[in-house]
From TrEMBL:
GO terms for molecular function: symporter activity. The chain crosses the membrane at residues 12-29, 41-66, 87-116, 145-167, 174-195, 215-239, 251-273, 302-327, 339-359, 379-399, 420-440. Belongs to the sodium:neurotransmitter symporter (SNF) (TC 2.A.22) family. It comes from Salinisphaera shabanensis E1L3A. It is found in: Membrane. This is Transporter. Keywords: Membrane, Symport, Transmembrane, Transmembrane helix, Transport.
Length: 445
């Protein structure tokens, strides 16, 4: 007996959940250090251009596939594309699964840092001591796995509640809290002594610092910050009603995701300049540099605690959407119950996460292509699987569906996609070109 497909309980719920899917560590952790490494304002403008010109088009495309088929990624491509195309959906499910196996490790670090900030572990420490605290923590064979396990339980618990009662309900609470914390932290950061220099660096473009790497980094960040090419948007789109105005709501999701990234930059870069530190500290900016910055602020332990709570929320909403990709496939195509699919997947990814976590410490010498297990999994998904998935989605909607996709957006009188011809042109030509750049640059780097 077939089970009726779940749907979002409200339009607001869909927007909050989808924005939560897009908003993740890439927005709050990666975007600020990418901007810091690539010249600030110039990178910001190029990034915004990439979001508008091809990021939004791909979000609409991926949501549309899910809504048209009302199925998981594999089932959606089987229904709409026929023979051969389900492999694209299978790659999305596999990508989400692999990302989760290392995402829960990094997300566990955010939970640990909530505790560290609550205990004022970084009070009075300098950048060298902060770095030692971080490297000692991730090298521990037990501690990071404990926090990864806690994070996994939280993630599975949300997904077990289902679409409306679990994911949607949690998103309606977590996303507003995330925005409140971001706004409070941004106001505090820009009012710090010396923060004006950081604001200028972030908002005033210096085009002399722009290189080919800046363009490639901006395209890559726009693509990855929107959770494209991993089946998350497609899966969430499958829970939409056909009457829902998809172009309008997709635009709101992209807007909220971009706003989070912009606010995160206003939190981190002015604070870093205020403390007299380098904005180009790279990936270590969050876990090594920022704790030292907070330690120098009046009431810095409170703002540091708020920041890592914010980071954990972003990680959770994004991880929930990744888990739902796998769960949706197992429920639809394999006939598992939601409990068996969610709990079973959680257990398996945690087992896989064990060697990934240990590769940061006692197994650090065991590498693949010169990278730790975590770095290798990140490279394969971020630089290969996600871009390829996004490329195939663009080509599928642009060429395989073509005008049929435009007609599907007009299934209700209220739905309208201005410049539909331009949308198809972007999917057929511009988006594939940008994604190809990501692939080529990733391999050269």
């Amino acid at each position: 007996m077939s089970v009726a497909r779940e749907h979002w309980g409200s339009r607001l719920g869909f927007i909050m959940a989808s924005a939560g899917s897009a908003v993740g560590l890439g927005n709050v952790w990666k975007f600020p250090y990418m901007a810091g490494e690539n010249g600030g304002g110039a990178f910001l403008i190029i990034y915004l251009g990439c979001v508008v010109f091809f990021g939004l088009s791909l979000v609409i495309a991926e949501l549309l596939i899910g809504r048209m088929a009302q199925s998981n990624p594999v089932g959606a491509f089987r229904t709409l594309g026929g023979r051969g195309w389900p492999a694209v959906g299978a790659m999305g499910v596999l990508t989400a699964f692999i990302i989760l196996s290392f995402y829960i490790v990094v997300a566990g670090w955010t939970l640990a840092y909530i505790l560290f900030m609550g205990e004022n572990t970084f009070g009075g420490v300098d950048i060298e001591q902060s770095t030692k605290i971080f490297t000692s923590f991730i090298a521990s064979p037990v501690q990071p796995l404990v926090y990864a396990a806690i994070f996994t339980v939280l993630m599975v618990g949300v997904v077990l509640g289902g679409v409306a009662s679990g994911i949607e309900r949690a998103s309606k609470w977590l996303m507003p809290l995330l925005f409140v914390l971001l706004i409070v932290l941004a106001i505090r950061a820009v009012t710090l002594p010396g923060a004006g220099e950081g604001v200028d660096f972030y908002l005033m473009p210096d085009w002399s610092r722009v290189t080919a790497s800046t363009w490639g980094g901006a395209i890559s960040q726009a693509f990855f910050s929107l959770s494209l090419g991993m089946g998350a948007m497609l899966t969430y789109g499958s829970y939409m009603s056909r009457e829902q105005n998809l172009p309008r709501d997709a635009s709101l999701v992209v807007g909220l995701d971009t706003l989070v990234a912009l606010l995160a930059g206003l939190v981190i870069l002015p604070a870093v300049f205020s403390a007299g530190m380098e904005p180009s500290a790279g990936a270590g900016l969050t876990f090594m540099t920022l704790p030292t910055v907070f330690a120098q602020m009046p009431a810095g332990e409170i703002f540091g605690l708020a920041f890592f709570i914010l980071l954990a929320i972003a990680a959770l909403t994004s991880a929930v959407s990744l888990l739902e990709v796998v769960v949706s496939y197992l429920v639809d195509d394999k006939g598992l119950s939601r409990f068996a699919a969610a709990a079973g997947t959680g257990i398996v990814i945690f087992i896989i996460a064990i060697p990934i976590s240990l590769s940061q410490g006692i197994w650090k010498e065991n590498t693949i292509a010169g990278m730790t297990f975590l770095d290798f999994a990140d490279f394969v998904t971020a630089h290969v699987m996600m871009p390829v998935g996004g490329l195939l989605i663009a080509l599928f909607v642009g060429w395989r569906l073509g005008p049929r996709a435009v007609e599907a957006l007009k299934s209700h009188p209220e739905q309208h996609l201005p410049l539909a011809g331009l949308w198809l042109f972007v999917l057929r030509f511009l988006a594939p070109a940008g994604i190809a750049w990501i692939l080529v640059q990733g391999f050269f780097e």
